Amino acid sequence: MGASPCAAARLQLFPPEFKGEESAYKRVRRLVHGESVQRSDLREERLTETLQTAAMEQLKGAEEVWMVLDSTDLRKPHAEQMEALMMVRNLEGKAVPGYRVLNALAITPGSRALLYHRLFSSHEEGFKSEPHEYREAVRSVGRAFERAGKSPAVTWLLDRAFDDQAFWGVIWEQGDQLVTRLKHLDRIIRAPDGEGQWQETKVEPYGFSLPEITRFQTKLRVRVGRQKKSRLQEVTVILYGGPMEVRYQVGRETEQEPQSRRVWLLRVQVLGSDMRLWLMTDHPVDSAEGARRVYQMYRMRWSVEDAFKFIKQSLGWEEVQLLSLQGVRSLVALAAVAAGFLFQWGVTLEWDAIQLLAKLGGWIPRKNAKPGRIILTRGLRRLIDTVTASTVLREYKDRFGRLPPQVAEFVPDDFI
Hints:
By secondary structure, the protein is an alpha+beta fold.
């Protein structure tokens, strides 16, 4: 007896491990159409809530938490029909279509946990501004700690995208601290002159007048001297530091008088290289120990970049052409959950979404054997194929009223 059309279609769309698993097929279909309301529900508000609940368990007992907030672009240079595409920058700095994703990762000496995830577009309905999105990420994390009844010392580790006085104010309003790389070196500040008198000046000239605090040897990927390419090597890092005063406000939602805060400027110079970092922090850097600690805190951002890249690169964006904004969000959310599992960010094999991706990737459960990067990436790619097929078939049926008989024979009625 020949296989039914539904059975035949499932054999084409899913790996052998899914044969006969009606519930698994339905879970994929619900995910494709955004109908799931269980743990595999990947609406962003539900995902963030679930991630934050798991994260609080991971962070139990932590007295200090470092938060890495990462903003990354998902580029779709050849896309034309995807919903609400905004313009982002490619690696050459040219404007191309795409979306932006925010992730916030909590780091303690014993654990890491993803506390926030959101994909947004400046062209979606209800969008306010990118700085507003950044501020809401910080507030969301603050509310999570508040709900959990936790009050660890939180420090945000930030790159140049977050060099914004209104953003700093939101962090400080919550009682948190920060280490941020500065972008606007022409910002007006107040700082002590050579005689100790506080005067108005700018970040860059003041930074070049700072005294050396300490120097030490470390390994960095950098180009030194006449080297043509960067490479991992041992270099000398020199830290210069001093106090300064900056103006800030708490968000931009209301009219308010600017406030002042005493902070520290740390200039990081790699000897023999043009690599230079300008860091601002409210952790003291007037001692060798304090300055090195702030530098190491900022370097922690680099240690998690591979994990954030996984979220972006595992999806095979060049292969995805026809998706709603909700579909894109669901897939990127799944990639975030997969990263949370692979990099031990509080996501476990018990999560329904991880089991689904593993099965889609061809994983066979065995004792003491967990799915890895290849399996979960394959699962994500197969899910992308499923979503794309569903979208194309639905659009064809809406336009022509039915699918060609030769195609309809292999497509379950409830797939589109």
